Amino acid sequence: MNRQGYYGAWGGAFIPEVLYETFRELNIAFQAAKADSSFWREYIDLMQSYSCRPTPLTRADNLSDHFGGARIYIKREDLNHTGAHKANNVMGQGLLVKRMGKKRVIAETGAGQHGVATATMAAKFGLECTIYMGEEDVMRQRPNVFWMEKMGATVIPVTSGSRTLKDAINEAFRDWVSSMDGTHYVMGTVCGPHPFPEMVAWFQSIIGLEAREQILAAHGELPARVFACVGGGSNAMGIFQGFLNDPSVELIGVEAGGHGLASGQHAARLAGDDGSAGVAQGYKTMFLQNDDGQMRDTHSVAAGLDYVGVSPILTDLWEKKRVRFAAATDQEVMAALELTMKKEGIIPALESSHGFVQAFKEAGELNKDQAIIINMSGRGDKDIFTIAHAFNDPSWKQFIINKGKEYATD
Amino acid sequence: MNRQGYYGAWGGAFIPEVLYETFRELNIAFQAAKADSSFWREYIDLMQSYSCRPTPLTRADNLSDHFGGARIYIKREDLNHTGAHKANNVMGQGLLVKRMGKKRVIAETGAGQHGVATATMAAKFGLECTIYMGEEDVMRQRPNVFWMEKMGATVIPVTSGSRTLKDAINEAFRDWVSSMDGTHYVMGTVCGPHPFPEMVAWFQSIIGLEAREQILAAHGELPARVFACVGGGSNAMGIFQGFLNDPSVELIGVEAGGHGLASGQHAARLAGDDGSAGVAQGYKTMFLQNDDGQMRDTHSVAAGLDYVGVSPILTDLWEKKRVRFAAATDQEVMAALELTMKKEGIIPALESSHGFVQAFKEAGELNKDQAIIINMSGRGDKDIFTIAHAFNDPSWKQFIINKGKEYATD
Amino acid sequence: MQLTEYIREARTQKEILLMTHLVLGYPDFTVNREVIWQMVKNGVDLIEMQIPFSEPVADGPMILKANQESIDQGTTVRQCFDFAAEITSQHQIPFLFMTYYNILFKYGVEKFLNKAAKIGIQGLIVPDLPPEEGEEYLTLCKKIGLAPIMIYAPTSTEERMRQLADHADGFIYCVARRGVTGKKTDFSQDFSEYMARCSRATDLPLAVGFGISNREDVRFLVGKGDIAVIGTRTIQLVNERGAAAVGPFIAGLR
Amino acid sequence: MQLTEYIREARTQKEILLMTHLVLGYPDFTVNREVIWQMVKNGVDLIEMQIPFSEPVADGPMILKANQESIDQGTTVRQCFDFAAEITSQHQIPFLFMTYYNILFKYGVEKFLNKAAKIGIQGLIVPDLPPEEGEEYLTLCKKIGLAPIMIYAPTSTEERMRQLADHADGFIYCVARRGVTGKKTDFSQDFSEYMARCSRATDLPLAVGFGISNREDVRFLVGKGDIAVIGTRTIQLVNERGAAAVGPFIAGLR
Ligand SMILES: Cc1ncc(COP(=O)(O)O)c(C=O)c1O
Ligand SMILES: Cc1ncc(COP(=O)(O)O)c(C=O)c1O
Predict the structure, then answer these.
(1) Has this prediction a pTM greater than 0.80?
(2) Has residue D1 got a pLDDT over 70?
(3) Structural domain of residue D61, as residue ranges?
(4) Could you give the ipTM of this predicted complex?
(5) Which of A296, B267, B322, B347 is the most exposed place for a label (fewest CB within 10 A)?
(6) CA distance D192 to C230
């Protein structure tokens, strides 16, 4: 960081004046927590006793043999409480909220994972909780909405804009500018105004710390490559931080290729040429926007990757060529997901499956003495509606039709 | 055990002659594995690297404060890969299958959890897999069926009898009597003919081994009581084994009270007076049966508890008054589930919620220096269809109606 | 002993005996009565009457369904006894009970066996009760004079067969193949070896069951076993063409 | 400097000035033109024209919707410049651009500001650009002679206000309350203290915005601020009763 909250040319804090004080206090509280080693210990304790950390590093022999190249290891963030890496960040911010004495949290959510994680944290810490979620996502992720509500959160469908993640973020900010005194905004990914990228990256670094130790124990040396899907970039930053200082480890971020980069219907900000520098949602990064600076609609089969911006930290690492970027199409994602289920009995989230796609493409380039790690950010059973739909499963459809009829005649 | 496979008067191996050799070989293979300490080490390694063991013991302060009595601890079997304790048993049997050199597994499943776990294990170990599941359960647990199929298993709906768990067990036996040479039957709970109860109890003992160590570390002394739901009894036996030799620790098994013991629509074999001694599905235990010995229909909101029999080991412990039994009604279960979600951000499976009900009833009787443990056998998000239905959630229903219409017009 | 002698005696007259099977109360007792009458009249030598059980693990789909429908219609163990008493008093051939152990266990094994003997039943087939679990049952059978029919399977070793023979009486029921009732058996070379093994292991007469459904099957068994067991086939026949079809079918088997 | 003087000058004539707001291209440029004409004719002293942005975080539902519909209809930054050029040439009061930083950033900050100055825009309000992030912008504004309007909020400390004042020109936009545009403000005791704090922190004129919607609100501000800002209310009015309703409304405010 050269300037406060900057990573190379990226980041910053483009916030309305009304939040100036709030951010000042948040920065102070966060830096104090970061400097206080007991805070990190408390965080680790919490993650060990409430979630399931350290999450395992699973050696995927069947997949490795299938591709006949590198030994494939999978970092199992799916085994976290609530089913994804989102828990790491949220529980950490929860501890910070406790320190700051605030009584309410708000959050945006796309796939619903961050919303579920935040509602969970709020229940655990006894906080009031409001979740903003694009109306389209409310519809495609109804099960998550149900759980959030059951855990006591209020879910507000956002009807503005493209009714997806970015609009939920805007709406959460709109809440925050009136409620900041008693409310903390739990940003769900390693984006947004400083100090959020730094904060989220810090909490997520637990993934990389564990993974580095685990791969050394299991494989005896560092991995050749580490793959992670990139929505906002938090799971990727989480695992990459374990290897940033190891130049031999190649780091690969995989974005949503949607219907293909050429189609324009994707969410690849760094892979491909469609992204350009911009400032929105409080920070500077590469966005998918038109020539006027209006944000474009994005597309991905994975709601959690369907986002116009990307972590400023990753943009910096991309610019510095420390992290390479690739994109996986919806179709490739379904194939990788299916193969992983069949070969390993593991169901990656649609988001996570993006990382698997690229790893599968590259595994064969390496030899058996080399290891690669795929960060499995979450589990796919939360995506049953999307996955069963994408596979066009006839029994599933019939099941839903029957249930629907049953309810319609109630 | 006085006689081979007996626990007091209970257990045994009431098997057709055609399976005699198969069971003889299984007994030998199992006893050899049990005697070989490297086998258990391999099992532990597998559970640590593929599942998430040791699973945490979570201190539930909000619930404890709410009831104002004992400190409540929750053993988090929900954080296992595939979302329930079933993984412990299945992965253990998977290793045994590898040892025996068989290439195919079959299993029965009720809630679908054991089916998913078995399909998962089969994918991981490269085995062919057939799952028998009562037609009624296929209908109420469609998401689980979807995942089993996606992991490469064949799911066969069983249309005989009450079309639930017991019929699936019968059907799996029917498969086994023709296929035993290359096929292992992965019994899902601590029931069935010897050596299954012993085998499943052994693999599940990992829960209790961990829990004992964890509660001593966290609480400084043994718990006053340990609660677990009881379907077949595997999760209960799993945790109870950690404390069987500690007379100060009271062990409480909670069965499905369904619509109330008086209604006759329940699955309480040991709590209440409806159970009687019998022999079916290969073993002797307390069954819900009529005066002629015909098995009765059972009922529970939790498919995994909806079973006529119960572990012979538990029946023995019940008879010896080492384990106390209680029943929780469907209604009590929904209330306990809701409270747990709101207070702790934790979603127990409907099965597991039975244990919570009884713990909540008793927590207030104890004082703050005492600890109790609830075994949370699985996570509830797998039960979204049942839970959302039971809560009569209008948005959920609308969501399903809309999806159904969408599919109907495809 | 009585039963074994009956079989040996009958075998002096016939190359092979026939044993048939039916599920009591299915489709109902009236049809059972008619079917038995047809069977006896057409030369069946022994009949096993299955008391329905809700969990018939060793049975295939057809007999499973018969068990369940019978129970669903309200068939009780008591009705089965009453019916059996009537039948044994009307027909002179030996009748056996086939059922699962829980039916005996719940009734009280001793009470059940005494009752069965009293109404003229000569033996029992209990497919889920291996001798290891059947000490009480075996002792009582011996005491009461009922034949506890033991089962051989193709998976049984010769050693195991000898062990089973020690507990057996009446005859041995040799299951012709793996699997449950109701599927066709492939009478191959393996089968002949299996039957030879059975013969070596016991002096008792051998019945062969599972998948025998026509004259060829029966003929094939001549010289290998003493009794051909017709199970699922007659149930199917009654379902499809009524009780009256049973007589001609039986008559054509031998 | 130019703008500040205009305001001071106007204030010698009027107890309080009026600044209005509209979103360019919403509902369309023709209506914008008519609305501005109505505003100017009825005595509005300054007008802020918002160039729509897809992510207007500081705006409430009404203006958010206006931004989006304008963009959906194809409004471009270029059209906004063209329209603004036409308007500034036809009306003599000062016009400001209000927009979010990305619009400038993507256009090129220098190019944007030069263009704005060239077509007669006098200042800019960029709510998501605090001075810490706006070094280039602030330097260029000064160089080009555009007023970078700074914003005070009720949460700003007096120290922070002084800091902001150091970068400001034209006037200070005092946000009357927390939250986004379009909600009613409660002008309580706190508010008066807030305004007093604002006055102490800067010598620049003070505009007060957020939630001012009628004559009472405007009257209340007399003596506390220099400019009352009417935002959402006129958009709502145009939506409900058309552009022609704007004139009488404005006329009645003072
Ligand atoms: C399982 C999972 N993986 C990945 C993501 C993408 O977020 P990030 O790039 O911040 O890890 C999400 C977001 O919801 C998610 O739910
Ligand atoms: C989550 C869960 N808990 C409990 C049970 C009941 O089984 P057992 O009593 O063997 O633990 C099941 C069975 O499917 C289950 O899925």
Answers:
(1) yes
(2) no
(3) 3-244
(4) 0.95
(5) B322
(6) 103
